[in-house]
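Ticket #4471: structure output looks truncated?

Reporter: J.K.
Steps to reproduce: submitted the chain below (120 residues) through the standard prediction queue, then opened the result file.
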Amino acid sequence: QVRLVESGGGSVQSGGSLRLSCAASGSTLSRYCMGWFRQAPRKEREWVASLDRDGSTRYTDSVNGRFTISQDNAKNTLLLQMNSLKPEDTAMYYCVAGQQYGRTCGFSTWGQGTQVTVSS
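Returned output as attached by the reporter:
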């Protein structure tokens, strides 16, 4: 069973950048499809980005062009580069792993989250 630990969150001003990391242990990330979700206060958790096993990436519309999901296989780490951050990006960010079913990722294993706060 893979275990996931996020890091890299923090406080930044609007327009700034952060890079989130998700370190995996217990298994190799390349065996899974991966994703990032986020949850803002008083809102439901929402999907942010996915990385399929074939390398395909997808993004929710609100972050497309600003965020980049990638994987460092040498470090067994999932990354999320976040540029041009906006106050509405403020949330707890979660890394998640799952099994690939065609173009669908069955997300099942979650990290504990890392907080991102963007001030205007």
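Triage note (M.O.): checked the attachment and the full token line is present. DSSP finds no helices and eleven strands in the chain.
Status: closed, working as intended.
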